[in-house]
Amino acid sequence: MKKxxxxxxxxxxxxxxxxxxxxxxxxxTIPFDVSKAYKKSKDTGSSFFAIYLHDCMKxxxxxxxxxxxxxxxxxxxxxxxxASSTILRxxxxxxxxxxxxxxxxxxxxxxxxxxxxxxxxxxxxYPPVYGLDCIHCSALPWFSFTSQxxxxxxxxxxxxxxxxxxxxxxxxxxxxxxxxxxxxxLIDGYHVGQFAELFQKNLNLP
Length: 206
What we know:
This protein is an alpha+beta fold. The chain has helices spanning 12-19, 35-44, 48-62, 105-120, 189-203, and strands at residues 2-3, 25-33, 68-71, 74-77, 82-88, 94-96, 134-139, 161-170, 173-183. It has a single domain (2-203), classed as 2-Layer Sandwich (Chloramphenicol Acetyltransferase), CATH 3.30.559.10.
């Protein structure tokens, strides 16, 4: 993790403005075409969730601003961003995971399965290892949505938050809406656009 020199940052005025707000988060919901990713899951027998989450995390790690975090009003860039996703148990409660990221899908999927097993065998809400070098994300496969709101703790936060909707058909495509909430002190609409473009590109890979 490396510290940014805010005084020399071209976004220093934006950072100072939004960092002073009680709730500096903004949110958008974007539809993604997951037709090829879903077909890949069926063809390979892999989890659809694992495939699209991996595609998402590759995009997150490729956009620098999504790797920024605020600590004591200073900005740091994380080396790697991991996934902290909600994982459902058989009793319909959930636990927070901490899935170590890897560019290699098989390694990432192994990390995901280990976290799933840990949560299945535990009633704990939080993982034993936790940090700011992650995104918070939730899979909501029971319904589709066109907007969503994340809980606001009142504590200054800088971790991006994503929510994945139920898939739905539109013409010949399978779509999934993704809610994205980000701290405007670190991330602008331009950076969300960069992420969206890369995420869709990854989803389209054979």
